[in-house]
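Lab notebook page, bench 4
Experiment: in silico fold of construct C2
Operator: M.H.
Input chain length: 208 residues
Purpose: comparison with the prior construct
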Amino acid sequence: MLHPSPNPAVSRWTGLGGSLALSALIDLNQPAQAHQVQTGGSVGATLHLEPNDTPRAQEDTLIWLALTQRGGRVIPLEDCDCTLRIYQGNTLLAQPYLQPITAEGYQDIPSATVVFPAVGTYTLVIEGRPVNAAEFEPFELDYTVTVAAAAPVSPQTTGTPETGAIIDPEAPAPPPRPDATVPSALTVALGVAAVSGLMIWVLAKLRG
């Protein structure tokens, strides 16, 4: 199911005539290395993943597929009973709901937003058949997608704009500063001694 065997209709795309037909399905202004293109029967599909065809694990990835008939006519999602399946190895991970999107000049093509669970290689399979009197051959195409590691997250820092100081939440709190408004023990002792001396001097004067 993931790798359908070749058939005569597919092989017709590989010759010179197929090359000319395929060129009608691909926007020549798009970078050749960016999107993956597969063909089957009379249908070609261009796969694109955001951002920049470089999906990352644990991040939202927008997938869209531009479906075109031989000759370049776009197949909108409303004319295709389409199913997208995502595999890792032989394990079916997801069958996301498809929604129409307009991207890079393609109108109302199928798309889905997914989150790949981990780094690795995945297989995306798009299957479709015509509806609403559309005329194209049923197809099943598969793509190999490599998912990279998530982008590193910068450590959060806090501090005033003037200093930009980094505060480590694991560091012990600094000792509190002494309150200047509270007298120290030495100050109190000196004050008591001074008052006592003054009282003794006054009593001595009175007795004299």
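Observations: The helical segments are 8-11, 16-25, 185-207. The domain at 8-147 is CATH 2.60.40.2480 (Immunoglobulin-like).
Next step: discuss at group meeting.
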